[in-house]
Amino acid sequence: MKAAYTFSAVFRVPAGGTSLDPDRFETTLRLFAPPPGVEPGPERIDWLFFRDRLWHGDIGDEAPLRERVSEWLGVEVVSLSFSELRADEAYLDALREEIGRDLSRFNADSTDQVLHQYLGSSVHVVDADAV
User: Fold this and answer.
1) Residue ranges per domain, the chain?
2) H-assigned helices in 1-131
3) Which InterPro entries match (predicted)?
4) Which of 10, 14, 16, 126 makes a 20 to 30 Å CA pair with 109?
């Protein structure tokens, strides 16, 4: 069971008295998702990351997430945009089941509504090796 939130990230490398050309680089960033329902631990994100950070497939408030990712990576992230949740079928089934346990925390009537209102159409089901 695997999943990752995938982002397009642009970061700037500190030059430290030198000059870099280019001084910005674009990359794909994957934040691996913990199993649904697992209480927050030492992971960088918890299983409710989608609820707390995304809205209709976009980052709800980019600046705080960009700052947090900058801390994790040790470089200045100047742009961050959500691409998709890449998940295998087992993860998506577990996520749906966990969401369905308490729809009130998502202010929704169904698991499909929850997934749509937070992730939009940005869910990509893949083989576990492709996460």
Assistant:
1) 3-124
2) 49-53, 62-73, 89-101, 111-119
3) LWR_salt
4) 126
CA distance 55 to 82: 10
- C-alpha span between 129 and 66 (Å, rounded): 27
Residue listed under structure tokens 């674009």: 26
Query: CB burial class (10 A; 0-12, 13-18, 19+) of residue 79?
Result: middle
> Checking DSSP bridges between strand 58-59 and strand 54-55, what pairing results, if any?
antiparallel
C-alpha pair distances (Å), 32 with each of 14, 51, 82, 99: 26, 15, 14, 18
Query: What is the distance of C-alpha 101 from the center of its chain?
Result: 22
The full DSSP string for 32-45 is: EPPPTTPPP-SSSS
Two tokens, residue 57: 């497939």
Tokens 């087992």 correspond to what residue?
Answer: 90
